[in-house]
Design goal:
single chain, 686 residues, alpha+beta, Spermidine Synthase, Chain: A, domain 2, Rossmann fold, 5 domains, eight-stranded mixed beta sheet, four-stranded antiparallel beta sheet, 17% strand
Length: 686
């Protein structure tokens, strides 16, 4: 039976090399018009897990009673025999979980650990068979072969590998269409650099950078953060916002590492004396180091102390108080993450704030319903006497304190004038005090009023864990959430320190009243943009108002930049050519080849040559360089290749006419065009 378990586990290990593709295909099959993304993911996960575990679990289930029968047959007391088997089964279960989760995976990785356990199962089975045959030599032989196999697997890390670790590292379960064919998978493998890959007991972590594009931090196949501007804006806001709202932030607690950008943002404030980082997965530290350019190499900051523990648990076991506590947990629908959005957790954060302390918490506005957003805001507000909400492009940031949050514009401007802080925030349109405060949307009164329609998420009533997953893949959620948040928008004036001079107070009031009027126009444009209605009349009218009245309004500047980035990445027809042919049935037909250019990153573009009728890609060519160079190179190359295709077709047309045919044959032309494109895309760049 042990041999059967080992063989079944070996088969599963081999099948797992294509696990992402299998899950992708199943999700696509289950994602029918009447189903939801959540149902498709859950159904695919269940089906794959069931199929993989059924046979090994069956043999494991048979092994226990069979072992009891065999052991009892050699002893007089059946109860004692079964009890002994049960005892050793329990000991084995405990040791198996402990050794696998805390030793093997960290030392050898998931695939190697499975292979070693397979060898152990088969070896134990063969030794048991040998013992039944009473062959001492066979027993020692089985033990020796098993030990040799395990040692070979342990010390030769390349031998016997079946999985492509790069494939597992680059796979993103939020971008299924990028991996739905072997050709796409191969293209992704060839054009993606893996900067870091780690397998741990809690999660697998990878850092990747598609050539010429942004760097991404991936956990269990889901991109969690990146160097895209919208991600950088959120991560830096979570670090700088509480630091700038606090008068003198000396002691800082950061929950979760991610890319390290939030941690890095806190580290460059000169007032800081001590930073405590709580990270449950040690492998995340290596991932953060690859983002050193963006996080100020915060992992190596001498002021930093890293605690390898669950952040919530650490707060419950320490008496230390902090001036700033900031948290960027994963999305509430991820397994176990909803416990970092409960009243009990927020209360623990509140209890660990020093007098005047400020806490911030990430709140995604995507893949959550408006009621979910209201639930988080209400739950957060129950733990703090004073709260506020900032709304960046793609996310919201909650602010909590047990003391009034009063913002001194002059002091904020003075602190933002420091070169390192201004550089960090200018890139995300938050570099001045007015720009920074323009992202404010709700104060204490507005946040509490907004949250009243939500539930309270508690440890005993974890409503968010069950409601949040239903919003997976719901594209309109972002626009919906911006709409409901902006409906409660407040003026920031009640939360600003009042200047002593009347003239300055009047200027402050007029300035922020104008800002509020502009913000209301922007809110509508923001929601329309996130709904994908940026080409509609209502959006164009809102944009015209913003352009005429306040083109420098910081959130609008950021939105326009994202628009330009997205527009540049849309496929564009560069050139096209039609070729008259005679089809196999003798009738006239046309082959149309299009050269489509697209930006695949800030410094990389591609030209794809497509046979429109057959939906066949003849070939593609990548270009690397500055954006202005790409804008010149892509259309020039497309025009050159299309010209070469026309020239090749002209030769075939002349041959057809000499033979009396009205046009060349379809198959001949298609083959010639493919050859020409293949030659062109492989040609060295000038």
């Amino acid at each position: 039976m042990e041999v059967a378990i080992g063989v079944a586990a070996l088969a599963v290990t081999l099948l797992m090399r294509d696990l992402p593709n299998q899950a992708t295909r199943l999700q696509s099959l289950l994602l029918s018009p009447g189903s939801t993304e959540f149902a498709a993911r859950q159904g695919a996960s269940f089906a794959v897990a069931f199929a993989y575990l059924l046979v090994p679990a069956f043999f494991m289930g048979v092994a226990f009673p069979l072992a009891g029968v065999l052991h009892a047959s050699r002893r007089e007391r059946v109860g004692g025999a079964v009890g002994a088997v049960f005892t050793w089964n329990t000991v084995g279960s405990i040791l198996g979980a402990a050794v696998s989760g805390f030793v093997l995976i960290y030392a050898f990785g998931i695939e190697r650990s499975l292979q070693m356990l397979v060898a152990l199962n088969i070896g134990v089975g063969l030794a048991l068979v040998a013992s039944l045959a009473r062959g001492r030599l066979l027993q020692w032989l089985a033990a020796g072969v098993t030990a040799a196999a395990i040692l070979a697997l342990a010390f030769n890390q390349t031998w016997g590998r079946a999985w492509d670790m790069k494939y597992f590292a680059i796979y993103r379960n939020t971008q299924r269409d990028a991996f739905d064919t072997p050709a796409k998978v191969q293209d992704a493998l060839e054009n993606t650099d893996v900067l870091y890959y780690f397998e741990g007991a809690n999660e697998t972590i990878s850092v990747i950078r598609p050539k010429g594009s942004m760097q991404s931090f991936i956990v269990n196949g889901r991109p969690e953060a990146s160097t895209s501007l919208m991600d950088v804006q959120c991560q830096r806001t979570l670090g700088h916002l509480p630091m700038l709202l606090h008068k003198n932030p000396r002691r800082v607690f950061v929950l979760g590492t991610g890319t390290g950008m939030t941690l890095g943002a806190t580290s460059i404030h000169p007032e800081v004396e001590r930073i405590v980082l709580a990270e449950i997965e040690p492998g995340a530290i290596g991932a953060a180091r690859t983002f050193g350019e963006w996080n100020h190499h915060a992992i190596d900051n001498p002021k930093l102390r890293i605690v390898y523990d669950d952040g919530r648990n650490y707060l419950r076991t320490t008496d230390e108080k902090f001036d700033v506590i900031t948290a960027d947990p994963i999305h509430p629908w991820s397994g176990g993450a909803a416990y970092l959005y409960t009243r009990e957790y927020f209360q623990s954060v509140s209890d660990h704030l020093a007098p005047g302390g400020i806490a911030t918490q990430w709140l995604p506005i995507y893949e959550l319903t408006p009621r979910d957003i209201q639930t988080v805001v209400r739950t957060f507000a129950e733990a703090f006497r004073h709260v506020a909400v900032w709304l960046t492009y793609y996310d919201a940031e909650l602010v909590g304190s047990n003391d009034p949050i009063v913002i001194d514009e002059a002091d904020l401007a003075r602190r933002l004038a420091r070169p390192d802080l201004s550089r960090d925030l200018e890139i995300v349109d938050m570099g001045t005090s007015e720009d920074f405060l323009s992202y404010f949307i709700l104060g204490n009164e507005g946040a509490r009023a907004f949250g009243r329609a939500g539930d309270v998420n508690t440890d005993d009533n974890l409503t968010l864990e069950f409601s949040a997953p239903e919003s997976q893949g719901v594209g309109h959620a972002m626009g919906d959430n911006v709409e409901v948040l902006s409906a409660s928008r407040e003026s920031i004036l009640p939360y600003l320190a009042r200047p002593a001079e009347e003239a300055i107070r009047r200027d402050q009031r007029e300035r922020w009243e104008r800002n509020l009027a502009v913000a209301r126009v922007y809110d509508r444009a923001h929601a329309l943009h996130l709904w994908g209605l940026g080409d509609g009349d209502e959006y164009r009218k809102a944009r015209a108002v913003l352009e005429s009245e306040s083109p420098g309004y910081a959130p609008y500047r950021f939105l326009r930049r994202e628009e330009r980035t997205n527009a540049a990445r849309q496929p564009r027809l560069s050139e096209a050519a039609r070729f008259a042919v005679i089809a196999a049935n003798g009738k006239p037909a046309v082959i149309e080849v299009s050269a489509v250019g697209m930006r695949v990153g800030d410094s990389r573009a591609a030209v794809v040559f497509v046979d429109n009728e057959r939906r066949e890609i003849y070939g593609q060519r990548y270009f690397d360089g500055k954006p202005e160079d790409l804008d010149r190179q892509v259309p020039a190359f497309a025009a050159q290749v299309i010209l070469e295709l026309r020239s090749a077709y002209a030769e075939l047309q002349d041959e057809a006419r000499h033979s009396g045919a009205p046009a060349p044959g379809e198959a001949i032309v298609a083959r010639k065009l493919r050859e020409k494109v293949a030659t062109a895309v492989e040609r060295p760049a000038p």
